[in-house]
Amino acid sequence: MKAIIAEKPSVAREIATLLGATEKRDGYLTGNGYEVTWALGHLVGLAMPEDYGVSGFQREALPILPDPFILTVRKIKKDKSYVPDNGALKQLKIIEQVIGRCDSIIVATDAGREGEIIFRYIYEYLKCRKPFERLWISSLTEKAIKQGFDNLKAGSEFDGLYRAGQGRSKADWLVGINASQALSISAGRGVYSLGRVQTPTLALICKRYLENKDFAVKKYFQIQLEHRKEFTDFKSLSKTKWDDRKLADDTLKSIQRNGTATVTAVETKTATEQPPLLFDLTGLQKEANKRASYTAEETLNIAQSLYEKKFITYPRTGSKYIPEDMWSEIPALVRNLEARASCKKAVGKVKWGRFNKRIVNDVKVTDHHGLLITEKIPSELTAHENVIYDMIAYRLLEALSPACTKEITDIELQALHYDFTLKGCKILEAGWRGIKEKFTDEDSEPLQELPELKVGDELKIKEASVLEKKTKPPVLYTEAGLLSAMENAGKEIDNEDERKALKDIGIGTPATRASIIETLFKRDYIQREKKSLIPTHKGLQVYGAVKDKKIADVAMTAEWEMALQKIENNEADAGAFQREMEAYATSITRELLDTGIVNEKQPELTCPKCKSRQLLVWNKVVKCPDEACNWLQFRTVCGVPLSVADIENLVTKGKTNLIKGMKSNSGNKFNAYIVMNDKAETSFEFENRKPNRK
After folding, report:
1. What is the pTM of this model?
2. Burial annotation 34-63 (CB, 10 A radius, 16+ → b, else e)
3. Which of 249, 277, 629, 668 could disulfide-link to 624, CB 3.0 to 4.6 Å?
4. Are 103 and 35 in contact (CB under 8 A)?
5. Straight-line distance from the first to the last Cα atom of the chain, in angstroms, rounded to the nearest whole number
6. How far apart are alpha carbons 36 and 108 in whole angstroms?
7. Between vectors from CA 494 to CA 491 and to CA 498, what angle results, nearest 5°?
8. Which residues contact 622 (CB under 8 A, 6 or more apart)?
């Protein structure tokens, strides 16, 4: 009898059906010599400080350096403490019984670092010593699962992957637990969270926000000329930028009186744009955020759903390539897309027999190849699944197409003695851009088609105008921009040697970046303002405390990611990495215990309900400490944060100043006062209207 352990019940059912293990039992399926069971995500993880007998947030207990680390069943929060998750306990017992009845194990958790650690931690926790093999597949289609079972790999082949996953979880524990407790202790009030990847990511957002906020916008002026030749209208722009509007206006009048511009230079060159490669997860998340405003986590969840329905290959991939032995399967995938209405027209533009092989590269395929559709073409999907599926399908069609060839023409003109420039573009071969019929990127200016121009041509000035422009601050991060910054963290490093070494190393991995961003939201460190990510007051407080420390340094975090990759490839020692993390956790703990967080000066306010206790003013709520009274006021009302002054006015005067820009449940914006009655109940008071109970 063989035990098979999948990561989720849905995957276990697919495998069990294929193997003939169709008899349902409590927590597993059996039949045909197999017992197929499943984890429910991370059933087992590293124990928390209290499991080592260390009570939390005690200065004298830091740093906490477990030796050895203990594994424990997943815990959930109940009241003010953490208790074992009953569902996890039950499933773990079932897995133990299944393994006990079997001679060997087939590991069928997701084929990646997280999937490996999910199984290995269960295996270690149960003190199991039975032999195991690894099912390593990139899609859940029947064909892929059968091929996987025909080519089961020795479990020992993935020891490096396990050591890297274990090293990452221990590093996150050592840095996260110690740094978070140290900063919270030094702050004196409130709980603050720091992390190995979370904190440099927050630093990226805060640094960009402050650069944007502190940027001094300057006005400048340019002159634009409009011309017409051979029935074609086109525009040129002055090279000169004037700071003074009057000077620009005076120049404009002189140019208009002259009435002509002369072509002084013509340069034509052919530009070749290679097609994009396949999506990896980060690429898909960036594109989905730009095109459909999906968050990174939403995109991952939709892609995971498509994977589990067998429509796409494994989404948590960091590669944009496929291996040589998969190339023969590509034509059938493209041909199948003809059956999908949204893709049929695009498939008709593909050059059969001339497929571009840029996506084939055995060396650059990591654990999994780039994102592909499978041979199973969907007929019914949700609206969001349709969007993500078509992105992946269209990207495949683009990647297989030839390069786009353009003729780019740069023209220089002179009007009076002022220089003007214009750029023209002519598509020679549409290539991959013909698939979607988009010939420029959305964030670049469309290039105009030009008539035939040569040096010495005199062009009449049809119209002329002064354009008022402004210098632009560094753009706030969108989720797509932040994912790019995380992916390319190594390129931002100032030291040239370090930058070269870490050029292709980001912070986090494609599989974890979405959860890191979501963690920053959960911690109340960042918020969304339309599509932009901006720090909250609390986020800026944390950044202010750590910005000059290594924990906020993307270079160091990228170095750690590189070390984990080397451990995964059996090129570095996991023990040495852990010792380095312990030394770092010790030094950052000392640094942070001597660091204070600058808090808002809190007013002393008496509870308006019980009239006896002083209110506690926290980042998210203001509350009475007396549980019998339990008066509470949230610090964010209808999407607008209340300042300490607003809270003070409400409690002492019974009314805030006018709060602007609040949003109703239907999404409509409104302005109102928040008022309090004699029973300490709050309601809205609209301008020139009577109070309306919230």
Report:
1. 0.81
2. bbbbbbbebbbbbbbbeeeeeeeeeeebbb
3. 629
4. no
5. 62
6. 10
7. 70
8. 605, 615, 616, 632, 633, 635, 647, 651
**CA gap 211, 204 in Å, rounded:** 11
379 CB-contact burial (10 Å; exposed 0-12 / middle 13-18 / buried 19+): exposed
Q: What contacts 24+ positions apart, CB below 8 Å, involve 221-224?
A: 221/245, 221/248, 221/466, 221/467, 221/468, 221/469, 222/248, 222/466, 222/467, 222/469, 223/248, 223/251, 223/252, 223/255, 223/418, 223/420, 223/464, 223/465, 223/466, 223/467, 224/464, 224/465, 224/466, 224/467
C-beta of residue 62 within 8 angstroms of C-beta of residue 28: no
Structure tokens belonging to residue 54: 């260390």
Estimate the share of the chain in helix, then strand, then coil, as percent rounded to the nearest 5: 40, 25, 35
Pair 111, 137: CB distance under 8 Å: yes
Task: Render 70-123 in DSSP notation, one character per residue.
Answer: -EEE-EEEETTEEEE-HHHHHHHHHHHHHHHH-SEEEEES-SSHHHHHHHHHHH
Tokens of 679: 């029973």
**What would the pLDDT profile of 527-540 be if each residue is shown by its tens digit?**
988 889 999 888 99
| pLDDT per position as a tens digit, 22-80 | 999 999 999 999 999 999 889 999 999 999 989 878 899 999 999 999 999 999 888 77
CA gap 59, 62 in Å, rounded: 6
What single-letter amino acid sits at 559? E
In tens, the pLDDT along 216-251 reads: 999 999 999 999 998 889 999 999 999 999 999 999
Whole-angstrom distance, CA of residue 7 vs CA of residue 95: 12
Q: What is the pLDDT of residues 152-177, one digit of tens each?
A: 999 999 999 999 999 999 999 999 99
In this structure, is the dihedral angle defined by the CA atoms of residues 459, 461, 466 and 469, taken in order, positive or negative? negative
Dihedral pair phi/psi, residue 637, rounded to 5°: -120, 120
In the residue annotation, 123 being an active-site residue is answered as no
Name the catalytic one among 314, 321, 525, 673.
314
What confidence tens digit (pLDDT) does each residue in 176-219 have? Answer: 999 999 999 988 777 889 999 999 999 999 999 999 999 999 99
Rounded to 5 degrees, what angle do the CA atoms 87, 88, 94 make?
A: 95
Q: Are 411 and 450 in contact (CB under 8 A)?
A: yes
Mean pLDDT of the chain: 90
Rounded to the nearest angstrom, the gap between the alpha carbon of residue 40 and the centroid of all alpha carbons in its chain is 24
- Structural tokens at position 39: 């984890």
Q: Give the tens place of pLDDT for each residue, 438-455.
A: 877 765 666 778 899 999
Give the Cα separation of 356 and 371 in Å (integer): 17
- Please give the Cα distance from 333 to 370 (Å, whole number): 14
Give the closest residue to 378 by CA, choosing from 342, 422, 421: 342
Contact 542, 183 (CB under 8 A): yes
Q: Write down the H helix ranges in 139-158.
A: 142-150
Element (H, E) at 661: strand 659-663
Q: Is the pLDDT of residue 601 over 80?
A: no
Say if CB 2 and CB 34 are below 8 A apart.
Answer: yes
Is residue 313 within 8 Å of residue 16, measured between CB atoms?
no
What tokens appear for 253 in the block? 């009048």
